[in-house]
Amino acid sequence: MRKVKYRIFLDYDKEEKWVNDMAKEGWHLEKFSVGRFVFVKGEPGAFIYRNEYLGNLSEEEKVEYFALLQDSGATIVHESFNWIYVKKPVNEGPFELYTDASSKIDYYNRLLNSLLIVLIVNIAGATINFSIMGLSNKGVFNLGAGILHLLVAALICIPMVKIDKHKKK
Which pLDDT does position 98 carry in this prediction? Predict the structure, then answer.
């Protein structure tokens, strides 16, 4: 049996916790994309799930990393937009992707750099739309698009602040 759930998360830790809560109820992640999660019915609490942002790893680096994960007993569940979900049986003990501070900081930096690009693009989009608002006969459209860009930029700041706090810990 399959179940499809739609959720948007700005906090990847909360998303991971939710997926693990679903697994405790016997719903195991099969696929995911932005806001869409597909689960299959299985044994409750059988797996621990971790999500990770791969950043701009080359295909060769991904293959090496995936092999390393599989050698550790983990299984790649699915990859979407440079995010992956990995699972490992609960009976094999605790499962963390990063066990030392420097690799965790590198991971947080990858996340922050990617979000910074999205932030800059949206601020630039807002600036352009507000600049041409009076020059076009579609000023209301430009105003709306500029406001939308600012809204997205503000929403991007939420996970950036949380990631920065985690990084400082």
Answer: 84
Sign, Cα dihedral of 86, 89, 90, 92: negative
pLDDT digits (tens, 9 = 90+) for 12-32: 889 999 999 999 999 999 999
Indicate the SS3 state at residue 146.
Answer: helix
Q: How far apart are CA 153 and CA 123, in angstroms?
A: 6
Helix, strand and coil in the chain, % to nearest 5: 55, 20, 20
Q: Angle, nearest 10°, between helix axes 101-132 and 139-168?
A: 160
Output the CA torsion sign for 47, 48, 54, 60.
negative
- pLDDT interval class at 136 (50, 70, 90): low
DSSP 8-state symbol, 8: -
Closest CA to 155 of 113, 128, 123: 123
CB 97 within 8 A of CB 52: yes
